Design the sequence.
């Protein structure tokens, strides 16, 4: 171990060794200086030495050296300059992080460079060989050789810093910053195993902090700054755990936060509690605990509504909708039905534990599994105003699934609402502490709830139903899934049904002895028989029914209680044994890991330090030879001096001087001198013994005489002091008797004064008690009036809400009836119009047929060169010019149509021809019958729609 008079010399020596490439020697020199007890006073040079020491440790990846040095430096500067320790630790973490990132960059660059060596080859030769031998790729090998050692060293750096700062109240901020950086390291590189160990390390630090409360620099958790740092660290741990999907570790982090809050008896800020409950919702949803998930959402909604004043209405609606949907997603039946007493006790303890985590304070003496239930949660949602904030689709879902009785239409009405609800959600505004809300995650649970409600309602209406009909009523699942859902519901007593696949039907209701109806009938029948028996055979004397029916009830209860206690103790022992085994397994794994790490480090040290050991051995041999030569020369000079003093000749002459001969001569000379000295001492000791014996013989009679004289003096002194003590005691007694006689005259006055004071105090006490009772009565009366007023207000508000709801429902019903009436009237009017139109078309066809027959009779059947009118499409009939006159005459002879009466098309054309006779011209190429008359100015034929509109307007 090298020693230095000043620290500057050690630093200078280390720099010289670094320049010549001997970093290990430089590190050892600085380590010897830091761990030395000579330099325990802090100075600026020690800080520069620590910076150089840390750089060497990081460069050579010597984690243990760095830890030892930091611990020694903490002892030096803890009470003098703790800021220096903070700077050194920050420098240590910065160097470790920088080297790890550099190694990762080098590995990536090496991989990229190797990937472009041969553009034609698919794989490199070394990759092929390694893939055949070990299945390891080139990137994995480069990461193992370059990146992994530095990442291990960085992880050891974080652990070292946390271990050094764990109980330092002056560096709490640095401890929290290190923990945050370690969490980010685990998150960035997906290090789940290291994250679990890090959480365990921080958890152990807090436990030791509470266990050993008498430490000197222990952090004070009651201080607001310290508490905030510890809470921020735990909340960051919770966030990283959920991002890494380590749900078990996230739940343990939640328990750590809750334990910290219980420890300091203080609730964190609402912003942190929002994160707490948001992560609780994720954890409970992943674990399948929908009831606790809904309670966590309810607490989150209450916090947001109470403390977040910048939250807009849309975000509040989404959060409230999540609360309601989470509550609806809870199973509507109790899964612990029919469980044993021990299982019920475990469920009660679990509910108490979860209620404390969520923030609901319940009485442990009550049945907590009934307090934390779906029905109680829905009741709280209705009373706390959550239902007034939800979306309309969610409100309709809630009413359909909880209040409506629609056995046949429930699924068909719920399905479109679920489709709309699944599209709601997304990212919230920046004012909200919850980043995003997705309502689609509740759709499967709501579909299951709708199926259960439908089965429950159908079981109340039907006794038998075909499987096909039931499958058609439930569009969410196929019948196999419905059967699985119904099995759990029947098992927990929610519904009573059986499936008969041979007949293809579903049987609802339970006709067994354990069914509700049969059980009630049997109980009524048993009670009637018992009454009849009592009337026939009345009891002779009144005895205890309990003692008559159950004589050994107390003994049975005692035995059962002892059995349950024994079983509980056995289960607790098994739990403890299992925990102990798990702890031992973890310790064994940690020991194996440390052993493997130690073996790896030792192998690496042997591999790297082999050449150093050789040089060191050579240097040691050379130094031994030089030291032996110096010792031989010193022995020779000493022998020469001794010989000159005694007038003797030199012991050794010439070239025959060797180290062995010099040492033998020196030893023989020393032995001779020692023997002479011992003889002189023996002679002196004998002389001293004789002299001491003579002195004691002469002094013995003088000592005895002095002792006798001292006895006489002390006896006289004792008698004198005894006489003085008796006199003083007699004088004190006489004085006390005189004082008693003097004060006895005032005894009556003292008693009177005491009674007067006590009476006055008693009166004052009675007056104050009367005033207090009067104030209490007034306060109780005032509070009673306030409670009465509040009850009246609540009753009035409820009645007003009920009235408004009734009015709204009546208005909705009236609107539906009005719409239904209008629809029916419209349908009847349409039917009548269709009938009128059909009659009109029939009449037109009859008239056209009569006109055709009449014209054929007028025109004759022997006309040549013209086609028959019945052969043309569309019913068009061309005619000769000679036929126009008889038609015109017939039209003129016809009476004029009256207003409001239907006029056939051919009559309208004839009237137009009579009123405006056309000029003589050739007949048009088209049919005059189609055009409605040869002289009509309106060539368009009136359609059925136009005539229908005309008649409608006339009507």
Sequence:
């Amino acid at each position: 171990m090298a020693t230095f008079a000043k620290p500057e010399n050690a630093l200078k020596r280390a720099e010289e060794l670094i320049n010549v490439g001997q970093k290990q020697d430089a590190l050892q020199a600085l380590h010897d200086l830091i761990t030395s007890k000579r330099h325990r006073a802090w100075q600026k040079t020690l800080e520069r030495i620590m910076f150089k020491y840390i750089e060497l440790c990081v460069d050579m990846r010597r984690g243990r050296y760095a830890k030892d040095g930091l611990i020694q430096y903490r002892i030096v500067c803890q009470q003098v300059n703790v800021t220096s320790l903070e700077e050194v630790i920050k420098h240590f973490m910065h160097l470790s992080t920088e080297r790890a990132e550099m190694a990762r960059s080098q590995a990536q660059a090496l991989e990229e460079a190797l990937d472009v060596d041969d553009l034609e080859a698919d794989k490199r030769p070394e990759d092929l060989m390694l893939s055949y031998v070990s299945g390891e790729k080139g990137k994995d090998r480069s990461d193992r050789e370059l990146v992994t050692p530095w990442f291990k060293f960085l992880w050891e750096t974080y652990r070292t810093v946390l271990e050094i700062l764990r109980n330092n109240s002056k560096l709490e901020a640095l401890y929290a910053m290190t923990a945050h950086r370690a969490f980010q390291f685990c998150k960035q590189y997906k290090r789940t195993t290291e994250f679990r160990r890090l959480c365990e390390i921080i958890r152990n630090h807090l436990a030791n902090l509470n266990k050993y409360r008498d430490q000197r620099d222990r952090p004070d958790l009651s201080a607001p700054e310290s508490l905030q740092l510890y809470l921020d660290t735990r909340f960051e741990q919770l966030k990283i755990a959920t991002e890494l999907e380590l749900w078990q570790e996230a739940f343990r982090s939640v328990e750590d936060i809750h334990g910290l809050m219980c420890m300091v008896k203080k609730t964190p800020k609402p912003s942190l509690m929002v994160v707490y409950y948001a992560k609780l919702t994720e954890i409970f949803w992943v674990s399948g605990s929908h009831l606790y998930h809904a309670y966590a959402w309810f607490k989150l909604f209450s916090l947001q509504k109470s403390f977040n004043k910048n939250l807009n209405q849309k975000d509040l609606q989404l959060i409230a909708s999540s609360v309601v949907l989470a509550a609806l997603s809870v199973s509507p039946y109790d899964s612990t039905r029919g469980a044993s007493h021990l299982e019920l006790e475990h469920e009660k303890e679990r509910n108490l534990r979860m209620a404390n985590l969520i923030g609901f304070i319940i009485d442990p003496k009550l049945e907590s599994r009934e307090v934390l239930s779906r029905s109680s949660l829905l009741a709280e949602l209705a009373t706390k105003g959550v239902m007034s904030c939800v979306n309309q689709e969610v409100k309709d879902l809630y009413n359909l699934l909880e209040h409506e009785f629609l056995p046949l239409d429930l699924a068909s009405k719920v399905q479109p609402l679920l489709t709309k609800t699944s599209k709601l959600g997304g990212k919230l505004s920046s004012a909200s502490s919850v980043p995003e809300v997705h309502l689609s995650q509740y759709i499967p649970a709501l579909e299951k709830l709708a199926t259960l409600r439908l089965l429950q309602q159908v079981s109340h209406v039907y006794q038998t139903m075909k499987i096909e009909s039931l499958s058609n009523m439930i569009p969410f699942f196929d019948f196999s899934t419905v059967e699985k859902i119904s099995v759990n519901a029947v098992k927990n007593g929610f519904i009573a049904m059986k499936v008969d696949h041979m007949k293809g039907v579903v049987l609802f209701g339970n006709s067994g002895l354990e069914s509700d109806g049969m059980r009630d009938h049997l109980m009524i029948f048993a009670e009637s028989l018992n009454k009849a028996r009592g009337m026939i055979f009345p009891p002779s004397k009144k005895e205890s029914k309990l003692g008559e029916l159950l004589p050994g009830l107390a003994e049975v209860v005692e035995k059962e209680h002892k059995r349950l206690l024994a079983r509980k103790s056995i289960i607790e022992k098994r739990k403890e044994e299992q925990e102990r085994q798990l702890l031992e397994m973890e310790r064994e794994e940690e020991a194996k890991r440390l052993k493997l790490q130690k073996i790896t480090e030792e192998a690496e040290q042997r591999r790297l330090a082999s050449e150093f050991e050789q040089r060191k051995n050579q240097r040691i041999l050379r130094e031994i030879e030089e030291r032996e030569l110096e010792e031989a020369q010193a022995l020779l000079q000493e022998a020469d001096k001794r010989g000159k003093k005694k007038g003797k000749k030199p012991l050794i002459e010439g070239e025959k001087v060797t180290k062995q001969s010099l040492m033998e001569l020196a030893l023989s000379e020393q032995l001779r001198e020692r023997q002479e000295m011992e003889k002189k001492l023996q002679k002196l000791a004998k002389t001293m013994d004789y002299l001491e014996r003579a002195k004691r013989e002469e002094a013995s009679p003088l000592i005895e005489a002095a002792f006798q004289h001292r006895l006489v003096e002390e006896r006289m002194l004792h008698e004198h002091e005894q006489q003085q003590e008796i006199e003083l005691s007699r004088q004190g007694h006489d004085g006390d008797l005189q004082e008693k006689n003097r004060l006895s005259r005032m005894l009556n006055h003292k008693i009177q004064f005491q009674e007067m004071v006590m009476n006055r105090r008693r009166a004052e006490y009675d007056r104050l008690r009367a005033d207090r009772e009067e104030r209490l009565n007034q306060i109780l009366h005032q509070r009673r009036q306030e409670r009465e007023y509040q009850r009246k207000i609540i009753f009035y508000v409820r009645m007003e809400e009920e009235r408004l709801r009734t009015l709204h429902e009546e208005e909705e019903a009236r609107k539906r009836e009005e719409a239904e009436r209008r629809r029916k009237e419209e349908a009847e009017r349409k039917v009548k119009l269709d009938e009128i139109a059909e009659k009109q078309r029939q009449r037109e066809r009859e008239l056209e047929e009569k006109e055709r027959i009449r014209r054929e009779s007028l025109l004759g059947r022997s006309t040549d060169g013209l086609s028959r009118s019945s052969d043309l499409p569309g019913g068009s009939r061309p005619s000769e010019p000679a036929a126009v006159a008889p038609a015109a005459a017939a039209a003129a002879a016809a009476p004029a149509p009256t207003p409001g009466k239907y006029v056939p098309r051919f009559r309208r054309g004839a009237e137009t021809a009579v009123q405006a006779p056309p000029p003589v011209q050739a007949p048009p190429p088209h049919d005059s019958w189609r055009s409605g008359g040869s002289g009509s100015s309106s060539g368009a034929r009136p359609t059925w729609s136009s005539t229908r509109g005309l008649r409608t307007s006339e009507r």
